[in-house]
């Protein structure tokens, strides 16, 4: 008779074998220029096919050797980049303690992936972050009525957590100290705090070759800037849009947020042979 402990061990082994086989099959197809996605296609798989393909070109053409993953949550974006083939240095920032524990577990398996338990903003300080039941929505901003309507609940916030906030300018030199010529890609998923992060990066903007920011079409927090405010400010900092990729929609199919990918003027031209980035 098989004991419960033995049964659990067999189940874990089978899951590990299935995962390994899936990765082997997928990597084999990718070596021939193909990819395998679930059917019917889900939102994450759609992002892999669109945003992922675009990021491969951006990272290669801008010669990115360090990614700042700001608002890393559990480390999903870091794993996404590794799946795309990015093998350079990866720096993830996550302020919420429960999220950071999961992020650290993922990052510890990768010698070039470093995790920092902090937020980035416009100044070095301590702030209270609103921790949502849906933890990826945690924000320094207050959810508005549209957010409550979209989420289908008025009880969105589980509590407050006092967190450390630093600026890009404060941490930049330490993060790239071992890179001779750092070429940074800055990814921002900070739930309405993206412009504040950029305000704290003014001294090192020249070292940032690419930028990815989650931009609001329909704001879900009070005082959250919309794309009409965010895009001109990012352009004024020297970045040009290369792609817009839907993140989520409401029940009426209206866009709520998009990932906006941008490059510093001239950053993608060094190795461009012909045509444009698609």
Structure description:
The chain has about 280 residues and is of the alpha/beta class. It has eight helices and ten strands. The protein has a seven-stranded mixed beta sheet, with helices on both faces. The chain has a three-stranded mixed beta sheet with strand order 4-6-5. The protein is globular and about 45 Å long.
Report the C-alpha radius of gyration, rounded. 20 Å
Largest sheet: 7 strands, mixed
- Tell me what portion of residues adopts beta-strand conformation: 15-25%
Content-based structural category: alpha/beta
Task: Provide the spatial order of strands within the biggest beta sheet.
Answer: 3-2-1-7-8-10-9
* First-last Cα distance: 59 Å
Helix percent reads: 25-40%
- Summed up, the helix count is 8
Shape designation = globular
Low-confidence stretches: 272-278
**What's the total count of β strands?**
10
Helix-strand topology string = HHEHEHEEEHEHEHEHEE
What does the average pLDDT come to? 86
């Amino acid at each position: 008779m098989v004991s419960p402990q033995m049964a659990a061990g067999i189940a874990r082994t089978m899951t590990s074998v299935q995962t390994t086989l899936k990765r082997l099959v997928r990597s084999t197809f990718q070596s021939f220029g193909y990819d395998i996605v679930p059917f019917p296609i889900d939102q994450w798989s759609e992002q892999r096919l669109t945003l992922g393909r675009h990021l491969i070109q951006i990272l290669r053409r801008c010669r990115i050797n360090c990614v700042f993953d700001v608002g890393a949550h559990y480390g999903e974006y870091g794993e996404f980049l590794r799946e795309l083939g990015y093998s350079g240095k990866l720096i993830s920032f996550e302020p919420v303690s429960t999220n950071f524990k999961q992020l650290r577990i993922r990052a510890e398996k990768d010698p070039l992936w470093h995790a920092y338990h902090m937020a980035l903003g416009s100044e070095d300080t301590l702030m209270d972050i609103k921790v949502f039941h849906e933890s990826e929505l945690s924000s320094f901003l207050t959810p508005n009525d549209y957010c409550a309507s979209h989420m289908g609940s008025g009880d969105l916030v589980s509590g407050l957590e006092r967190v450390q906030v630093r600026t890009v300018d404060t941490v930049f030199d330490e993060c790239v100290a071992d890179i001779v010529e750092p070429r940074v890609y800055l990814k921002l998923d900070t739930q309405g705090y993206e412009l504040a992060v950029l305000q704290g990066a003014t001294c090192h903007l020249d070292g940032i070759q690419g930028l990815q920011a989650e931009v609001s079409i329909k704001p879900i927090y009070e005082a959250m800037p919309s794309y009409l405010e965010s895009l001109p400010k990012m352009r004024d900092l020297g970045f040009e849009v290369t792609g817009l990729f839907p993140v989520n929609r409401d029940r009426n199919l209206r866009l709520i947020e998009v990932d906006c990918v941008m490059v510093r003027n001239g950053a993608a031209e060094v190795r461009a042979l012909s045509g444009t980035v698609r």
